[in-house]
Design a protein that fits this description.
50% of the residues lie in helices and 19% in strands. It is of the alpha+beta class and 105 residues long.
Length: 105
């Protein structure tokens, strides 16, 4: 749930500030920490959009319960993204680029 919040914050800040702005750095650092804390056995995990729900591994996040999920589902749907696979060892630069790409509309 905190991971989804950081994705939402990162996208919003990337839409608000120019590329490379330092306001994004704390979000990037926090997101990187959270990636390493995801309880999985593999080196990666997927975030999947199914209608108005986001699934991360076996965990379900419903947009009717969590407003950030609705925001993310709407943005991902607008971009035509059905799933995203994250490597838990993503670099800060890759995370910044991800936020920038997701903010582009």
């Amino acid at each position: 749930h905190d991971l989804l919040k950081q994705i939402g914050l990162g996208i919003n800040l990337s839409r608000t500030y120019p590329k490379g702005h330092p306001a994004l750095l704390p979000i990037v650092k926090r997101f990187r920490i959270l990636l390493k804390e995801v309880p999985i056995e593999q080196d990666s995990f997927s975030l999947v959009v199914i209608e108005d729900v986001i699934m991360i591994e076996q965990e379900r996040f419903d947009s009717k319960i969590l407003p950030i999920v609705k925001t993310l589902v709407d943005r991902l749907t607008r971009l035509g993204v059905k799933s995203i696979t994250f490597n838990i060892d993503l670099s800060e630069e890759d995370i910044r680029e991800f936020f920038t790409a997701m903010a582009a509309t």
